[in-house]
Amino acid sequence: MGTVILGSGIAGISAGYHLEKSGEKVVIFEKNNDWGGLCGNFSINGFRFDKFVHFSFAPDKYIADLFEESSEMIEHIPFPSNYYKGIWLRHPAQNNLAPLSTEEKADIICDFVNRKQKPVEEIQDYGEWLRVQYGDYFALNFPYKYTRKYWGVEPEELETKWVGQRMYTPDLKQVLKGAFETQDECFYYSKVMKYPKKGGFRSILNKCRQGLDIRFNKEVVKINTINKTITFQDGSEISYSRLISSLPLPEIVNMIDNTPDDVKVAANNLMYTSGYMISLGFNRPDIAKYLWYYIYDEDIFASRVYSPSLKSSDNVPENCSSLQMEVFFSNKAKILSPEIVLNNTIQKFEKIGIFNSKDIIVKDIRFEKYANVIFDKAIYKNRKIVLEYLKKVGIESIGRFGKWEYFWTHQAFDDGKKTAKSPI
Predict the structure, then answer these.
(1) CA dihedral angle for residue 182, residue 175, residue 126, residue 146, rounded to 10 degrees
(2) Structure confidence by residue, pLDDT tens digits, 185-236
């Protein structure tokens, strides 16, 4: 059959587009009945919801232009907020402390001034990194709690290479200024976030997806790398000359004939988060107050909340608004039932005054097994074992779960492009 790509998420679409652009014929197989992967969306009674929160801030002009050619974009200045013990703080909280009590601000600032000084290369884990950056009080009451909610593990279980520019580290003057007055400056790592005007986030791929041969409801159950054949759940079988996969590493190793035990063990030891998406539509246009925000209170299961209706009015019927909440679990944790998660979300958010449940006209909860990669201390060793094995048997792995990386959208797209142009 020639070149086969497994998975029609952003990396798979990018690889297919760039291969066909270079004259190579490609077939993409997708286990679901629609394309987009985690960039996909779904609609209920005129309300459109993405799979988790997405914005584009591609720094590469080639990628940014491709996205823009696919869909007219809306520009948002990222002013996210934080909810903490009934108080709303601008983001990042570490230098937007003004709404807190004098006593709590004093505790945070004193610990920030007296925090342990240590070279980054000597820091042993993410928990220590947080204490060194922000001081004990802030670390324990803000990012420690958020880590448990978003990553599903204790901060001490994580390494630190993934952090990069994702966490802002202010100087003392910025902390003090933000403790005395509300700051209007955007401290987010990207100063502009873009979102398609129509069609949901996956519309950034419209140009690349156009004309691609994507075959749906084709779940892979077996890969024979000697004979170069793939068997699907429906009993059909195809052959390939080149195989590119965006399938999660723990899944694909169990599909390959005669995978060595050490590779299976390494793959099964890779950690990741799974996530619920709670999607709510309202019969009022004014429910959503913030584009997105973070929640530190641990009795509220949701870690991050965002508004599809504020991202684009095309995502809701006229005179309506919408919210979407994310609840995450590590793959080592017990996952709560959707009924418990949904009830907690509605009850807690109604109690803190976000909405009145009588205004809800769409209510939905969905689960994604693979939401993000957890950077535990053994990730690099285990990932290397699996990726070297896949390369050895001639499988090119791409994307967030194929490379097992913390890829943003444009990075996953770029990975698909690079793989298409540089076969193993």
Answers:
(1) -20
(2) 888 878 899 999 999 999 999 999 999 999 999 999 999 999 999 999 999 9
CB 250 within 8 A of CB 268: yes
Mean pLDDT in residue range 100-125? 94
Q: How many CB atoms lie within 10 A of CB 96?
A: 25
Q: Which residues pair with 224 in a beta bridge?
A: 229
Average pLDDT, the chain: 95
Q: What span, in angstroms and rounded, lies between the C-alpha atoms of 72 and 311?
A: 13
- Looking at the DSSP assignment, which residues form a beta bridge with residue 326? 277, 304
β-pair type (395-397, 242-245):
parallel
- Tokens 């006209």 belong to 361
Query: Residue 424 — very low, low, confident or very high, per pLDDT cuts 50/70/90?
Result: low
Q: Is 305 left (phi over 0), alpha (psi -120 to 50) or beta?
A: beta
Identify residue 288 by its one-letter amino acid code: A
Position 262: which residue type?
A: D
Distance CA 234, CA 93 (A): 51
Order of strands, edge to edge, in the sheet holding 272-282? 87-90, 81-84, 292-295, 304-306, 321-330, 272-282, 360-373
